[in-house]
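Tutorial sheet, problem 5. The three components below are modelled jointly, 982 residues in total.
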Amino acid sequence: MTDPDLRPLAARADLVAGAALLLVALGAFVTGGSLSWGTITQPGPGFFPRALAVLLAVLSLALLTRGLRHPGADLREQWADGAGRRRVLLMTATLLGYVLLVGTAGYLLTTAALFVVMVRWVGGRGWTATLLTGAIGSAGSYLLFGRLLRVELPAGLWVP
Amino acid sequence: MDTLSAILAGFAVALEPAHILYCVVGVVVGTVVGVLPGLGPAATIALLLPVTYRLEPVSAVIMLAGIYYGSQYGGSTTSILVRIPGESSSMVTCYDGYEMTRRGRAGAALGMAAIASFVAGTASVIGLMLVAPLLGRFALAFGPWEYASLMVLGLTLVAYLGGASLLRALAMAVVGLLLATVGQDPVAGVERFTFGAQTLLDGIDLVPVFMGLFGIAEVLETMERPPDQQRLATPGDLLPTRQDFRDSLAPVARGTVLGFFLGVLPGGGATVASIASYVTEKRFARNRDRLGQGAIEGVAGPEAANNAAATGSFVPLLTLGIPANVVMAMMLAALTLHGIRPGPLLISERPDLFWGTITSMYLGNVLLLILNLPLVGLFIQILRVPYPILAPAIVLFCLIGAYSVTGQVAEVLTMVCFGIGGYLLRKLGFEAAPLVLALILGRPLEEALRQALALSQGSFLPFLTRPISLVLLLATAAALTTPLARAALARPPR
Amino acid sequence: MTRPLRLSPTIRLAALALAAAALASGPATAQDKYPSQPVSLIVPFNAGGGTDLVARAFAEALKMHLGQAVTVQNLPGAGSAVGTTKLHGSKADGYTLGMTGGFLVTTTLRGQAKFPATDFTHLARLSLETFVLAVPAASPYRSLAEYLDAARKAPGSVSVGTAGAGALTHLAAAALGQKSGARLNIVHFAGGAKEIAAVLGGHAASGVFSQVEVLPHAVAGGGLRVLATFGEARSEKLPEVPTLKAQGIVGVPPGPWQGIAAPRDLPAPQKATLVTAITRAAQEPSWQAFLQQNGLASHFLTGAGVDGFIKEETETLGALLKSVDITQ
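Model answer (structure tokens):
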């Protein structure tokens, strides 16, 4: 549900989203170009993707028009303050790092690292809490999922 | 053997000590995977299926069934407490459930979710007993034309999910439909938007998308606030009030009926049922204006609907041998390995299995209520855990949930990407629910539409001449008139 | 006369150490006694699929004759390409085996996996099933002849369902039309369950199925009537139904099969051990009972027999794939 206090920013958001979605629509239309259209009575594999791309283009143009006709407040107000933004960025980087590393470094080490970053630097907790949750979180989840439920977690560098 | 004595014989089967034990195991496991975000019943049953090959078939089915309907109980817990749904079928419970938590009413929401689930679960087991064979034939009356019309009707729900702006909801829905076209196309098997990646051949799985948009995005958004302000809610009171019960009566009844019928039909299942129930309440509930601001109807209706749908989806399996969803397909496999092939004759050939399974669901629902109500007191204590400690656990469950879909890191990457995308969408004031609904409905819609046209050799006429299809399309038209008229009259947001 | 080879004591010691190390390391111990650890069996589909069931039933029988646990590993994705690619890239040490079947041939032919189906050490064909052509019980077509006549009279008017584009049932349906000279309206469903629902409900005029799928419905008072079985001989489960061959139609894929393979270049000792164990396991009563219950014929093949079968399957299905427009 949209928070009422965000409403004034809606129009500028329409501009940004409209532009982004227009790009998606164009990309989908061009990429789907090699697929056969078929006919309206026998639609081929390309019919749905391209019809949807056209529809999305129309909707994003509508968003753009609405955004232009009702210019709203600055979108930047909507972003978090400096410290908050740093936490979000660090969290995003951590998640991407997890995906990159989990295959080679393995589940246990990467998961422990995830806990350390999130509890210590994103969460601002002390080292005792950090190391404790890191150890319990990675080892406990490994035992639960890797051993008890036999999920084939990435082994990587180190598995007991 | 008349139905009554068959039911009694079924109870005799269900109450055998070994069967009670497996029922307990099933509902406990179901509750756990329901509560944990990311890990769903489908992934869990896939993991446990090899174990059940060693059990005798009645025990195996009783346990797997318990996991499935048990998971519908727990799914709302994290929706209500931290606004992260445990299952996609508890997505809409976030709206009012979390608002109730913010108002110190987490206990009431959790309690009502359990009670609504129990009422719907029990009522639909009775439905299953009385009309299962009849409903099986009803499901067969749905051909590709009817499915296509049903999916179109389902898509109209989007119009009510978008928050303030219909235009934005439509845009999100089209993005969802477009995402649903990724992978081998459902009719010709041609690769679309796969960019040569093997992982994308099967399309984009719902679990990572949904966990990203709702789980990861929610965590990212919470991180904006300083650590000591990340937890807004307090545990508050424990149980629903008398007024809550009065308000929930009609929503639970509507949700049960809606969910049961949608569950019988393959395709949408519990998630679509819960969304349909939420939208129904938004239009028809006595307090409809309060929905979205912590109204109990927004919890009771959807939670009843997803439970009824879970029970309803047993109908095609037990009466026809046709699985309505992935979980039912795995149940079919468990039976097949024991040399049992469910079909129309299952009721007469294996009454112990048929009635034993159904009556065990009675027992299971009672057990779940006994299990879940005291857990409310425990679960709301989660609100006392500092968010910086809770967040990595939530993130980890999401990561494992995505990974366990196919055991590939690519699924985790998909989830993280949708998490970041979902965060940006929130910042721009876009709702993710229409995208999820469209992603669920997109593939079956295209499939049904193209099958229908192939079968009728290109003619659109059967959509209007087949009675069920016509009724569904008329309902679509009716559902569209209101929001379109409202949008035309309303002024755009400033 | 050559001078006697004289090595300094240091070098001699080093050589000795190297030789000892070589003896103690991997290959020597592996050859020591194969199998000395559990063997994993890759199933390129989710737990619960048809191939998974066959794999699990056979794994039970195989472990008794291999003396080691056989653990089934489900690696679904991209049809079957993810699992088969994994098997193809695994070490040929006898500890990684995989399930094969018609899917392996079609996936490789369609280029979703980047190697030919013959690029494995095929160990055995375990089971063979027959396809059937079924119509709703209320259908006007009482025999294959009536069915094909109707399709010839009004080309494209008779619809036939498949379990998916590019699936083996698709090739079988296409070949049925091609070899009988009837133009059938082929409609693809996402899997056998949805296909059977459409035929039971009378929405599609007919469908090609695996026999096991139709058995519960092909009974007196059931929802389906089987017009033909595709196997060489009449099916034990449906003895009253004539075969396609008996009605003069040949060259149609007879049905799905399941086999077991190792990565290519499996060393001879391991191969011999495995083939012996697999051959014995195929005689196990529990496995035979599984085959019987599910209407699967054994048609056990191993050695040159299975290699020839794979080669032939690749050629016939390849020709068929070229002649049917897969995008239709």
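Marking note: Chain A has two domains: 4-78, 82-148. Full credit if you identified this.
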